[in-house]
Design goal:
The protein is an all-alpha fold and 271 residues long. It is built from ten helices and two strands, in the order ααααααααααββ. The mean pLDDT is 79. It holds the Pfam family Ion_trans_2.
Length: 271
């Protein structure tokens, strides 16, 4: 009896060490900068971009007989990535509460039930937004001292996500009614409306359509203005002021413009 109990305890200890070793390995692959980890992260990034391309093309591919095969294959990849990232997280409960993770779980549900939840499929493009929450995207820029491009790129991606989310919503809600006969019509209407061009050849019917158009115009022009500000304003560096905490300064700033504290911003060489 004692030998059996000891054997069971040894098996449990072995499984525990194996589990801890697997989590440690995944943590290194997702977060370290070793050559093997970098290759793994680049592979994950390429797969993510391919998945996003599928999401953008989904409305056009739905009639293809291979659509469900692609859909479930991507669901399996996304589920595997979620499980691996969860295992790599130090605090799983805290990781599960992150907005990017919640969005990914929702996307996975729409992939597992494509027929029932196809009308919510346009929200899958939010995967592009969750991808920009990951260090996998920004780490290569920072390693090449191009981190100051992060905000303009983020603003451009936010605008792109908005365009495709709204296009998907317009296509889902209004296709077959009046002017919206296909996905391209929905995309055309979205871009024409958010840029306030307003050609008027495609419009959404009824009061609800007018309200949707108003929301597109207000949010769309705001995102455009934000992107223009980041592209054309003078470049700034991130360096928290030791006294007031202001983090954005001109590269050649000597004093903090908020409190006047003497700064010591490192130059590009790190001096």
């Amino acid at each position: 009896m004692g030998a059996s109990t000891k054997s069971s305890a040894d098996d449990d200890a072995t499984r525990s060490r194996g589990w801890a070793g697997l989590r440690s390995r995944l943590r290194l692959l997702y977060h370290s900068q070793s050559p093997a980890a970098v290759r793994f992260q680049v592979t994950i990034l390429v797969v993510d971009l391919a998945i996003i391309a599928f999401f953008i093309a989904s409305p056009l591919l739905r009639g293809d007989p291979r659509f469900l095969w692609f859909d479930y294959s991507i669901a399996a990849l996304l589920a595997l990535d979620l499980v691996a990232r969860g295992m790599a997280a130090t605090h799983v409960s805290r990781w599960l509460r992150q907005p990017a993770v919640i969005v990914d779980i929702f996307i996975l549900v729409t992939l597992l039930a494509p027929t029932w939840l196809f009308n919510l499929g346009f929200l899958r493009i939010l995967r592009l937004w969750t991808l920009t929450r990951s260090s996998l995207v920004w780490r290569p820029l920072e390693k090449r001292d191009l981190g100051h491009y992060r905000e303009p790129i983020q603003a451009a991606i936010n605008l792109l996500v908005f365009v495709f989310v709204v296009t998907g919503f317009v296509y889902t809600a209004f296709v077959g009614r009046d002017d919206i006969s296909g996905y391209v019509d929905a995309l055309y209407f979205t871009v024409a409306t958010m840029t306030t061009t307003g050609f008027g050849d495609i419009t959404l019917p009824g009061p609800f359509g007018k309200l949707v158009s108003i929301v597109i115009m207000i949010i769309g022009i705001s995102l455009f203005v934000r992107l223009a500000q980041l592209v054309f304003r003078p470049a700034k560096v991130t360096f928290p002021c030791p006294q007031c905490g202001l983090s954005r300064h001109e590269p050649d700033a000597v004093h903090c413009k908020a409190c006047g504290h003497l700064l010591n911003i490192p130059d590009e060489g790190g001096h």
